Amino acid sequence: MSKKFSLAVYVDNHFGVLSRVTGMFTRRGFNIDSLTVGETESPKYSRITITLSGDGYAKEQMLNQLRKLYPVKKLELLETEESVRRELCLIKMKHDPKTRADVMSAVEVFRAKVIDYGVEALSIEVTGEPSKIDAFVSVMKPYGILEMCRTGVVAMSRGSKCIKDKTDISSEIEEEVPVISENDQRDIF
Amino acid sequence: MIKTGAQIIVETLIEQGVTDVFSYPGGQVLHIYDALYEYQDKINHVLTAHEQGASHAADGYFRATGKTGVVISTSGPGATNLVTGIATAMLDSVPLIAITGNVPCSLIGKDSFQEIDIVGVTMPITKHNFFVNHIEDLADTIREAFRIARSGRPGPVLIDIPKDVQTAKYEFENCAPKPRIAMRKARDEEIDRAVALIKESKRPYIYLGGGAVGANISTEVQDLAEKIDAAIGCTLMGITAVPTSNPRFLGMQGMHGHYASTIAQDEADLIIALGVRFSDRATGNKARYAKNSKILHIDPDFAEINKNIPADEGIICDLHDAFLRIMEKITPASNPEWVSRVKELKAEELAKLESDEKLFKSQLSPRAAICMINQNKNADTPVVTDVGQHQMWAAQFCEFEKKRTFLSSGGLGTMGFGLGAAIGAQVGTGKRTILVTGDGSFGMNLNEVATAVKYNLPITIVVMNNGVLGMVRQWQTLFFNKHYSNTTLERKTDFVKLAEAFGAAGARATTPEELDAALKAAQGRSGPTIIDCVIDKDEFVLPMLPPGGSVDDIIVTKEELNLE
After folding, report:
1. Which of A62, A182, B445, B472 is the most exposed place for a label (fewest CB within 10 A)?
2. Residue B146 pLDDT exceeds 60
3. How would you class B110 by CB atoms within 10 Å of its CB: exposed for 0-12, middle for 13-18, buried for 19 or more?
4. B114 carries an active-site annotation
5. What are phi and psi of B549, to 5 degrees?
6. Cβ pair B180:A19 closer than 8 A
């Protein structure tokens, strides 16, 4: 059964890493719903949050294929019910005195914010779960949306566990076992 | 000591144990070539006719020796010519280091002469790749590239180095090659579950892939088969994982696999899959594949377990270690019914093969040709193939004793792979090398005959010449109403004269006796020989699982096809 979920991916903060990650999804035929990327508290890492939908097979494959990418250092699967998710959206509305009151009351109900106010247009910022943004956009539509832009989902797990406490993907393997010994019979490449 | 980037590149290669590089010079690697000149007593440079040939040579070098191959080329077209070679290495998990020069950093992104974003181009076909824009990172990047290429499931790594980094100067100090990233070891409970599955089994089938060749478990696999009365089969890439002479070995299974091997795999109740990825060519219709059996899948690659075929028990781990630990816990079990069934299948296969042979039209049947090659090679002779019918015949009928003596492009199926790879194998092993190719595949990269002549490499090139693109023609015969659309070559190339023009020896064989004589004559020469081995254009590769079909649809003999 296809289900929505997010992946938090800690990657080396290096050029080209984003296209490496997105390229893998394209190549393997997985569809990304949204993707956000930004720096973390450590300059070493960037954090990519990818939201997508898929069944159990797709989820397992995506995680395993991501693990194989060299710059991917930490990985966390964020199931919808076990994570907090937020998205931000900016909407530019036609400023019509006849509909202004309706727009403003919707802004209030959705706890959105007017961040630019002009004679012909006004801009609104709304933050929340993606479903809330969807709802707000559908309310605004009849009043004439001039332009809008959504950031895509950022997400974190609930509770005290942190992605940075997870072991590094490469060292996780190295810690478990010593390096290959001299008398190992395999090919020494 | 202060060294230039180019010197650092060559020094680091030497430090990593590289003794041979395959490459082609050009504008953006001139400085590296100057360093290669300086270090020519430490590193042997093989100049090919084309960068693609160099990339296949570096690949073949690994496949034959187990030593990482290195290819160097210039920017732009030099770099893009490596693409097919890198992709071939990627799909067959070959550690290959590709070093490309690029335009100076100041010209990057300006569509400069011979500038191409090769890192972008090769991103999906490398295990990883690097663009080095700081001299400080150069040596460590090359070291890391080798480590990545050699660790876990091996794969190609490309390093793109702009010209100004090659000329910049920096402090360099030698250091020992880094150990490979250790693979995960199987947990005890995983080993126990694997052992339990094996103990339960009455009809075990050990299934070996390319990963099993690299893991060096040949003796142990044969011991296990003895202990539990298992049949042994393999994929195309798993050929040479155990000697073909082992009586329990049934050969390659799959689309053009041996009848006994494919049927035995289907009738088995447990498939012990070692270092395989259940490729579509091996499984046929996935819904029908292995429906009678449980699957124990052991592989070092995280993403391989459950990717193509769900495993009853999948262990992501160091194959060598896991296998030894499983062996310790296995108690002998006798399965006489299974043993006799496997014997029966083998006898059935031979009978079918012999009855089919009567239908061969030409004096020289493909099987007879391969048998002649078997008689004229040693246990350590590398046999290289190209891609097509000849490849399948070689895979089916060639006999092998030692690992790494069968080299073939499995995953990518690269026509034109063979000659380059044979050059690499010859240079790496120093042994006479046999290339089995077809007139189609050979036509793709035969320019490398010039390389074999230049370096006087003892390579015997057997061109299975049927004047058609036989494998595609076979499909056209079976599935396209004999519409031979553009598969009849009609080239009139005289391979004997071609050999002479290149400075190689040439011979023609139309009977097994002539082929035998030509192979023997080739052995007496120090350089390359091309043998034009004339076969009929309507020979078939059989058995065959039709595309999308399964073991139920297997076609074993020509008679079953009702042609004409």
Report:
1. A182
2. yes
3. exposed
4. yes
5. -90, 180
6. no
Nearest-Å Rg of the Cα atoms of chain B is: 24
Look up the CATH architecture of domain A84-150: 2-Layer Sandwich (3.30)
Token readout for B23 is 């490459």
The active-site residue, picked from B3, B127, B163, B558, is B163
Measured CA distances, B346 to B65, B146, B202 (Å): 32, 43, 19
pLDDT at res. B183: 85
Residue type, B343: K
- What whole-number distance in Å separates Cα of residue B401 and Cα of residue B405? 8
Domains and CATH numbers, chain B: 2-171 (3.40.50.970), 188-344 (3.40.50.1220), 361-538 (3.40.50.970)
Task: Judge whether A3-82 and A84-150 match in fold.
Answer: yes
For residue A187, what is the nearest residue in chain B, using CA coordinates? B66
CB of B147 within 8 Å of any CB in chain A? no
Per domain, the residue ranges of chain A are 3-82, 84-150
Instruction: Just give the CATH number of A3-82.
Output: 3.30.70.260
Q: Are the CB atoms for B25 and B51 separated by under 8 Å?
A: no
Digitized pLDDT (tens) for each residue of chain A, 189 residues in all: 788 899 999 999 988 999 999 999 999 999 899 999 999 998 888 999 999 998 989 898 999 999 999 999 989 999 888 899 999 999 999 999 999 999 999 999 999 999 999 999 999 999 999 999 999 999 999 999 999 999 999 999 999 888 877 777 654 444 333 333 333 334 433
Residue from B461, B434, B464, B465 nearest B449 by CA: B461
